[in-house]
Amino acid sequence: MNRLRSLSPLTLRLLAFNFLLVFLPVAGNLSLGTYERQLLASQERAMVQQGRLLAAALARGAADDSTTAGTGGDPGGLDVAEAERVLAALNRRLEARLRVVDASGRVVADSSGFGPRRDQTEVTSKISRNDPPASRENVLYRVASAAYQLYRRVRPGPELPTSEAGLYSTAEPGGTLSGLAVREALAGRYGADLRVTRGSGPEGRAFTTLHIAIPIPAGERVIGAALVSQSTFRILRALSEVRLSNLQVFAASLVAAFVLSLLVSTTIARPLVRLRDEARALVDRRGRLKGRFQGSEKRGEIGDLARALEDLTRRLEQRARLTESFAAELSHEFKNPLASIRMAAEMLGDVESGDDRLRFQRMILDQGARLEHLLSAVREISGIDLMIDQEEASPLRLDRLLAAVAEGYRLRGEEVDLGYLAPVFVRATPERLAQVVENLLDNAIGFSRSNSDSPPVRLQLTADEDFTTLTVTDRGPGIPTEHLDRIFDRFFTYRRDSDREGHIGLGLAIARAIVEGYGGTLTADNVTVAGKVRGARFTVRLPRERK
To answer: Which among 251, 243, 249, 247 is positioned nearest to 33, based on CA atoms?
Structure first.
């Protein structure tokens, strides 16, 4: 019981579902009742045909000869000799027992009398007692039969009438039958009666016998009846074999369902429970990540889910570290201008010279403007992901945007050379992509002013089947190798102190954030000619939009 309680709800549902499926053979077993009724109806139709043929033959004889000629028949009644002759001609070829009774119900001819005289009931009883079907000796069948008998004790079904002495059998060869089928036939109607016969002996089994009686007419009156009796033992024997086959299928399905449920529990439920436990232990009380999902090397959806969760927690961990480092970097960047403002404010009260006062006032204003610029840039880079998600992007002709931005720089006196510009579309907002291009151009122009080579900055746009590639190349000193991995970090700059005016190290970080927000990448490397660095190159790759 404790083991059952420890099973996950998914395992229990799988068990219930699989066990529900295995009850389909049980439904098939229950439908055998309909099959049995159809077989009994077929047997009854065959017996009716036999009875009708026998009755028609005897009725024709009675019509041809309305009086019997000393052969044991009654005047104006049945021709006993003809009845015996017809039954003898059959030579016991029929499985059913045929009898002819006169108007009083007395048996005048019996097919069992031709050959060793054995009552059909005794034959069937002997078969039922000493030669039981192999299916009934099967342990599985016995268990199911015991369960069915217990069910019938709780909810009994309709019972068939039991065969009684004298109804359809008699110890005397010429005895009288008084069964329902015989009475109906002698009254001029079709008679049918199904009776249960108990086998003799302690192990005798019950079986049913179907009796069909057809009236034998002679003019306006009934002179007798043709009685056809046949046990349903062969039908029940066949049904027992079918039931055993269904029970074997049911037992095999039950075992297969249990094994399959355990297998599914091992391969699905347990990994999901493990992921659930890892998720619960992933964060502390303050909501901080304490680790990450372990992932999985297994194939399939569960393995994919575990690896996806591992990647998710890894990215969340990186994001958390990025946020923490951003706070530390921001605090550091605020520290210098605030210290300068504080120092200038303290010195402002001690100096008497007007020039010194103006110098400290300018220092406060400059550092305040720097703080304002810094806060504006920090606010922009902090909310750039949210702003990109909220902005409605549309297909944008990138080559035209680049030409317009380059023209604006030319109007300001900056040289920007346009190389090959492929006419391609990307999905973005023009303001954001223009900001990316301007940040890259400002950075390239700032490092290229000391070089007299022309043109200092070059824009080029190419495209393949899936991506659009934009390159911004300058003729500056290039990027120091040790800084290639850091130039996109926030607040990082390696400019000289004299060139840092207005630069806070967020331009490239903002550009990369925008590009990645559109599903692209931004990378940097150096342009080398004959082994010497001849400038820096920034490469933007964006998914191509099919217009």
So the answer is: 243
